[in-house]
Amino acid sequence: MTIELAEMQLVALGLNHQSAPLPLRERVVFGPEEVGGAIARLRERLSSRQTSALSEAAIVSTCNRTELYCAVDQPREAGAALAEFVAQEKGVDPNDLRRAAYVLPHTEAVRHAFRVASGLDSMVIGEPQILGQMKEAERLARQAGGLGLLLNHLFQRTFSVAKEVRSSTDIGAHSVSMAAAAVRMSERIFGQLDQSHILFVGAGEMIELSATHFAARHPKSITVANRTLDRAHTLATRLHGQSIRLSDLPDALVRFDVVVSCTASSLPIIGLGMVERAVRARRHRPIVVIDLAIPRDVEPEVARLQDVYLYTLDDLGHIVQVGTASRQAAVAQAEAIIESRVRDFEAWLSSRATVPLIRELRNRADDLRNRELERARRLLARGTPPEAVLDQLSHALTNKFLHAPISLLNDAASAPDEERRKHIELLARFYQPND
Questions:
Q1: Is the pLDDT of residue 3 over 60?
Q2: Which of 159, 161, 181, 222 is in Cβ range 3.0-4.6 Å of 316 for a Cys bridge?
Q3: Phi and psi at residue 350, in whole multiples of 5°?
Q4: Cα 369 to chain center, whole Å?
């Protein structure tokens, strides 16, 4: 069954660092390898429901947010269905998810997408990574067949708005990244880091960014641990450091003062027992552990150990909010740009809503034309003079095209004055002579 675009509306369901605690956020993360299958199951599930139909879907899942953007025919019913789907997919209590989730219909969903991509909804205001993450979400949704005309236009407009905000405002000029915050927290414990030994667990984008910030403090040593030794060695070489296998971590942990971890593991890789042994071997010299991963790489119980300072993404988020006041002027300017572009998107949606009516009018007009044209051909075949056939054809088409508006005027004659006036004004505008 084909669903007309005019029947579909946007709806977004999500939870982020403002609405949900870290333990819940890490449970609902969709890894890149999961997105395609999840979109297929979501479309199949909602297509089989009687209460709501879904034609398009995309999933944005990052360290600080998981959001579903969908095109549905009944947004109110779809919100509950989307929450139920995520809860079932990730094995979380539906009540916990509903309490933490937000459902944004139509215009609110558009505004939210624009704000997210522009860095206004991030833990670090103006941070640039989210735009790349949304582009990756668009790519994965396209591969999964989840993008149609509505979501495709939303994402393309979102990317354009984010570019405009970043090029027209200073929203990112004073942005303090999570990596910089990690350095700051380490310096609170150790002071200068030039005598510190730093370990990075993982070799992805966030670790590279963090390693660059720490390397600028000229620590005594830098080591990179990763499951794939080649990737660890490549990053360590750029940092003039060393590389080890992730399997060597339990024995090696004792050597490091600062541990920064961000992997794609679904389970913690740094456990309580591992850290306890390292602390004893260090004779209770402090150790800073910074967990930048979602789901978390470090067991939360590690925070209870003496001489261990464990910081999560939420902990660093409180730090990076310092200095937010200096960005308020840029934020206000960015919000104004976004509001303008939301109105542009609404205008586009409104224009799309008339497409089925325009198509129907054209079909009816073509049907009338074809019937009269066939009648004219029959008259010509009987030998009727062409001039008479053309005259009859033009009169027939004119009468048929004027039948509907004349009937409307006749019906309006008995209508209330205000309604009759509106009909007359509308038809007068419609049939006014072209210049």
A1: no
A2: 181
A3: -60, -40
A4: 47
Please tell me whether residues 391 and 265 are part of one structural domain: no
Q: What residue ranges in 186-278 does DSSP mark as E strands?
A: 197-201, 221-226, 242-245, 258-261
Sign of the C-alpha dihedral computed for residues 78, 79, 84 and 85 taken in this order: positive
The secondary structure of the chain in percent helix, strand, coil, rounded to multiples of 5, reads 60, 15, 25
289 close to 275: Cβ distance less than 8 angstroms: yes
Distances (CA, A) of 215 to 80, 219, 224, 278, 285: 47, 6, 12, 24, 22
Model pTM above 0.90: no
373: its two tokens: 């044209």
Rounded to 5°, the CA angle 26-29-35 comes to 170
Q: What is the spatial distance between Cα 321 and Cα 340, in angstroms, rounded to a whole number?
A: 27
Give yes or no: 63 in active site. yes
Q: Which of 63, 140, 224, 244 is catalytic?
A: 63
User: What would the pLDDT profile of 316-345 be if each residue is shown by its tens digit?
Assistant: 877 776 555 556 778 888 999 999 999 999
Query: 217: domain range?
Result: 178-319
> The CATH number of the domain where 212 resides is what?
3.40.50.720
Do 311 and 415 fall within a single domain?
no
| CA–CA distance, 202 with 280 (Å, rounded to integer) | 25
Per-residue pLDDT of 103-137, as tens digits, reads 999 899 999 999 999 999 988 788 778 898 999 99
